[in-house]
Specification:
The protein starts with a helix and ends in a 6-residue tail after the last strand. Strand 1 and strand 2 form a beta hairpin. It is of the alpha+beta class and 75 residues long. A 3-stranded antiparallel β-sheet has the order 1-2-3, with no helix packed on it. Helix content is 37%, strand content 13%. It has one domain (4-69).
């Protein structure tokens, strides 16, 4: 488990990455999801109207679906 200070340090360090890697790292920080859950995200999983990202249980390690707030516009 990372501390708030450690997460802030990682967040700040991502500013030096290319945009795709920066967004990926920040998505992991903001959602707490696993790397492959984020890497395999598909358009159908994100409901922009509701602001939710639904990951099917077939894509999670424990087999249970997850609903997370969709993150947008974070710099």
């Amino acid at each position: 488990m990372l501390t708030d200070d450690e997460l802030r340090a990682i967040w700040g360090a991502t500013a030096q990455l290319n945009p795709k890697r920066k967004c990926f790292a920040r998505l992991l920080i903001l959602t707490g999801c696993r790397e492959m859950e984020a890497a395999d995200i598909s358009i159908g999983e994100v409901d922009l109207q509701a602001g939710l990202w639904s990951i099917l249980g077939s894509r999670t390690r424990n087999g249970r679906g997850i609903v997370l707030p969709a993150v947008a516009g974070v710099d």
